[in-house]
Specification:
Number of strands: 12
Largest sheet: 7 strands, mixed
Helix content: 25-40%
Number of helices: 6
Order of helices and strands: EHEHEHHEHEEEEEEEEH
Radius of gyration: 15 Å
CATH superfamily: Class I glutamine amidotransferase (GATase) domain
CATH class: Alpha Beta
CATH architecture: 3-Layer(aba) Sandwich
Shape: globular
CATH topology: Rossmann fold
Strand content: 25-35%
Strand order of the largest sheet: 2-1-3-4-12-11-10
Oligomer: single chain
Number of domains: 1
Distance between the termini: 6 Å
């Protein structure tokens, strides 16, 4: 059965996420409006500037609608970098408009400015003994607190940088900027399990 996964097309690496989703066996759909959202079974919120993303999502009515769908655990959402901040219940410092349903605290730009971007190899627990994942960090946040329902999936320098809670998945890094599609495959499989397809 076809799995339609939306990519919030406001900012960020929309094309790269769509390419990875297609390789992972999903049908990618750009989402900008509620009408677009009604065409998909799950959503990726890419990186970008979290304040701008949250503001534009709120203007389109997307935050309330996504929040409503997420609360029954039937609408998987994956947030990368700024998308992690949009999904976080608490944010250190400025607090942009956001979905705010994942029981984590996010520290924005915790790894420095854009000039401090870096790539590293991460051990991601759900991939067991497979090779480490090539993770790209760009003005990345980190998770400084997570609640009992949150499962850490990867850490870097002592901080959680990837986690999941029910239908929600977040990473502080940009998996779409690597040639490795395993995280997108994992998310698509999460969608299939949630929808039982």
């Amino acid at each position: 059965m076809e799995v339609r996964v939306g990519v919030l097309a406001i900012q960020g690496d929309v094309r790269e996420h769509k390419n990875h989703l297609a390789l992972a066996g999903a049908t990618p759909v750009e989402v900008r409006t509620l009408k677009d959202l009604n065409r998909v079974q799950a959503l990726i919120i890419p990186g970008g500037e979290s304040t701008t993303i949250g503001m534009l999502m709120a203007e389109e009515g997307l935050i309330d609608e996504i929040s409503s769908r997420v609360q029954n655990d039937q609408f998987p959402v994956y947030g990368t970098c700024a998308g992690l901040i949009v999904l976080a219940r608490d944010v250190v410092g400025l607090s942009p408009a956001r979905v705010g349903l994942m029981d984590i605290t996010a520290d924005r730009n915790a790894y420095g400015r854009q000039v401090s971007s870096f790539e590293t190899k991460l051990r991601i627990s759900v991939f067991h003994d497979q090779p480490d994942f090539p993770a790209v960090f760009i003005r990345a946040p980190r998770i400084t607190r997570y609640g009992p329902g949150v499962t850490p999936l990867a850490t870097y320098d002592g901080s959680v940088v990837m986690a999941e809670q029910g239908a929600l998945l977040v990473s502080a890094f940009h998996p779409e900027m690597s040639g490795d599609i395993r995280i997108h495959q994992y998310f698509v499989e999460k969608v299939r399990k949630t929808l039982k397809v």
